Amino acid sequence: RRGRAAQADHGLRRVAHRTLMRLLHGRPLAERINASTNTRIAALRSHGIGPRLAIVSVGIDPAANTYQERLVHQGRRLGIGVHHAALPRGATRADLAATLRSLSADAAVHGILLLTPLPPPLEEASAIEHIDPAKDVEGMHPHNAGLLAAGRPRFVPSTAEAILELLSFHQIALRGARAVVIGRSGVVGRPAAALLLGEDATVTIAHSQTADLAALTRSADVVVVAVGRVAFLTGAMLSSGVTVIDAGINVTPSGIVGDVDVESVSAVAAALSPVPGGLGAVTTALLLRNVVTATEQQQLSGRSASG
Fold first, then answer.
1. Predicted TM-score (pTM) of this structure
2. Closest among 142, 122, 148 to 59, alpha carbons compared
């Protein structure tokens, strides 16, 4: 896998060199986030507290499995315990609800992540409600989603937050910028739009029923695409100088690729987040940072209650 990723990154670098397009790499940002997280974990451990994340899955999606592997690996490096509660593909709603409620009640678990998509007939919206909002480190519970919509975010879906963190790290101006978000999922599209709005961008959300998508994207300064379709966004849909954030994850025989047709987009874009090498490491770092934040908040709440 590392060999394929290196080969893909080399190809992107070659394209970027030819067109002077800037690649918005996420690794330096992830390392900065992880360094800060590591300091906070050391402080917790000095008080005998070890942050712990529970990952819940039903069956397993290849893309979600990649994310899980990154969380386990990076969590181990940082000293965050990562436990995987794997339910079989035939698990019922009651099975999933019971697992989430049990983890929510377990004081040794500080964060809970439900991997999606769920196999039918399970429904993500109803399952999420069984997670304690204080442990909902992916920010999907209606309580946390409501706080984000109100402009008072607590936990935010990690990929959406990674989009904003990456833009800020690479000093992409958002105030007054025209941003188009392609995709309206509760994991990426909607929360990313809310965060962009919070940075004073003028935001349009596009989706499968949007008429003349290209007319919107050609007017944008920033385009975020998260639809899960290989080579969906092409250079013909963009104007010169645009910044493109590729939030797509597509598992192909040759490796993981995004939603952007890199060859054509590189001819017009000023900057692009590569896949792999863009949002992935940042998303992982932010999710684990949320686990530490949840741990700190729960310990503070416990001390306040006992005091």
1. 0.90
2. 122
